TrEMBL record:
It comes from Mucilaginibacter angelicae. The lineage of its organism: Bacteria, Pseudomonadati, Bacteroidota, Sphingobacteriia, Sphingobacteriales. Belongs to the UDP-glucose/GDP-mannose dehydrogenase family. Pathway: Nucleotide-sugar biosynthesis; UDP-alpha-D-glucuronate biosynthesis; UDP-alpha-D-glucuronate from UDP-alpha-D-glucose: step 1/1. This is UDP-glucose 6-dehydrogenase. Residues 316-418 form the UDP-glucose/GDP-mannose dehydrogenase C-terminal domain. SMART domains: UDPG_MGDP_dh_C. It catalyses: UDP-alpha-D-glucose + 2 NAD(+) + H2O = UDP-alpha-D-glucuronate + 2 NADH + 3 H(+). Pfam families: UDPG_MGDP_dh, UDPG_MGDP_dh_C, UDPG_MGDP_dh_N. It is an enzyme of class 1 (oxidoreductase). GO terms for molecular function: oxidoreductase activity.
Length: 438
């Protein structure tokens, strides 16, 4: 099948590459000529494990191409995916200008029936808006389909190639058949394609992300409660997760959620509720708690250092990306923590396997960047762990003690065993567990 993907951000690039992998001919469109030229040359603009192999293979076999010419891409395409940004506006509502602008441009170019698919995360009613824009600019028949993505950064290739489910929102029978044929190779193991109306499909995406954000936030509150009553959140997490009705995933406490999806989608769903004269009290609380949780480690540090505070302290920070196996720093808790530390008069040296270039673009020389995890510890008064990269899980603790000015760790991801920290002689303060004192 011939396909066009408009937008080569995270969702667009994963979608286009994975669709090409099953034999489709995919043309990806972006307005930035320099970016398009780099992708044509095999240069990946994002970090995503495993995507580079598929990316290079399908470019070589000429199933995956890149262009700045919209007309060239959509002319032969049977399906046109819109994978464009929907950033939050000043009021928190999703900005649909990119999506609706592309719909208008496409409408003026099509000469035969096309299936237009919104792949971006969009508010309920967006398919209707896209349809209205298209009808105002063309008499050519078309169908608008909602097909939300459920990709986890770090395992996006697996999520696309072997999805838990595929959600397709359309009331057009021809479009339903086209989309069913397109996704058939990805659900051979028996996972469902769920067909529904467009509005239900759009809301499914927001509901899923908001529920997961709520689950994380609830466990963060339980962790904070554990510290007050002397319980261990790891034990509570295991006990709760053993209940099949709840499940084990998204129960790990930490310093809050970040990334490109959860913060934006929770805010957008809350705003959509407000526009429909409904107060989404749970989501409003989730956002409030998450903002506080991002700074939880700084609160702990202020308590530890007392009256002297953080002024003049030099701190090592492990982890900048919002989660491991990505270079995405959008809404990353590390950024909030760094802002707090710098405002308090501390200095920071950070290390992250993939996120440092993006942070450097944002913060410049406000902090120092280490070449590896151990170099970050030089002359540091304490270590903060903010992202649970695998490389941080089994360090040389004796060497760490030699490098640090003081054997002090504030761990926002609960990477280490409490008894081991005691044996090694660290002051170790984590989330929802007892503090190990030297």
């Amino acid at each position: 099948m011939k396909i066009a993907v408009i937008g080569t951000g995270y969702v667009g690039l994963v979608t286009g590459t994975c669709l090409a992998e099953t034999g489709n001919e995919v043309a990806c469109v972006d307005i930035v000529e320099e970016k398009v030229n780099k992708m044509r040359g095999g240069e990946m603009p994002i970090y995503e494990p495993g995507l580079d192999i598929l990316f290079l293979r399908n470019i070589k076999q000429e199933r995956l191409t890149f262009t700045t010419n919209l007309a060239e891409a959509i002319a032969p395409a049977k399906v046109i995916f819109l994978a464009l940004p929907t950033p939050p506006g000043a009021d928190g509502a999703a900005d649909l200008s990119y999506v609706l602008g592309a719909a208008k441009d496409i409408a003026k170019l099509i000469t035969e029936y096309k299936v237009i698919v919104t792949k971006s995360t969009v508010p309920v009613g967006t398919a209707d808006k896209v349809t209205a824009v298209m009808k105002a600019n063309t008499d050519v028949p078309f169908a608008v389909v909602s097909n939300p993505e459920f990709l986890r950064e770090g395992v996006a290739v697996e999520d696309f190639m072997k999805p838990d489910r595929v959600v397709i929102g359309t009331r057009d029978e021809k479009a339903r058949q086209v989309m069913g044929d397109l996704y058939a190779p990805y659900v051979r193991q028996g996972n469902p394609i769920l067909y529904m109306d467009e509005r239900s499909s759009e809301l499914t995406k927001y509901a899923a992300n908001s529920f997961l954000a709520t689950k994380i936030t609830f466990m963060n509150e339980i962790a904070n409660m554990c510290e007050l009553v002397g319980a261990d959140v790891d034990m509570v997490r295991k006990g709760v997760g053993a209940d099949a009705r709840i499940g084990k995933r998204f129960l790990f406490p930490g310093v809050g959620y970040g990334g490109s999806c959860f913060p934006k989608d929770v805010q957008a769903l809350s705003k959509a509720a407000e526009e429909n004269k409904y107060e989404f009290k749970i989501l409003n609380s989730v956002m409030e708690v998450n903002e506080t949780q991002k700074k939880r480690l700084v609160v702990k540090m202020r308590e530890y250092y007392g009256e002297g505070g953080l002024k003049g302290k030099h701190l090592a920070l492990w982890g900048l990306a919002f989660k491991p196996e990505t270079d995405d720093i959008r809404e990353a808790p590390a950024l909030y923590i760094i802002d707090e530390l710098l405002a308090a008069g501390a200095t920071v040296t950070a290390y992250d396997p993939e996120g440092m270039p993006n942070v450097k673009k944002l913060l410049g020389d406000k902090i120092t960047y280490a070449t590896n995890r151990y170099n970050a510890l030089d002359n540091a008064d304490a270590l903060l762990i903010v992202t649970e990269w695998p490389v941080f899980r089994t360090p040389d603790f004796d060497f760490m003690k030699e490098k640090l000015n003081a054997a002090v760790i504030f761990d926002g991801r609960n990477l280490y065993d409490l008894d081991r920290m005691k044996e090694y002689g660290f002051y170790y303060n984590s989330i929802g567990r007892k503090t190990v004192s030297i």
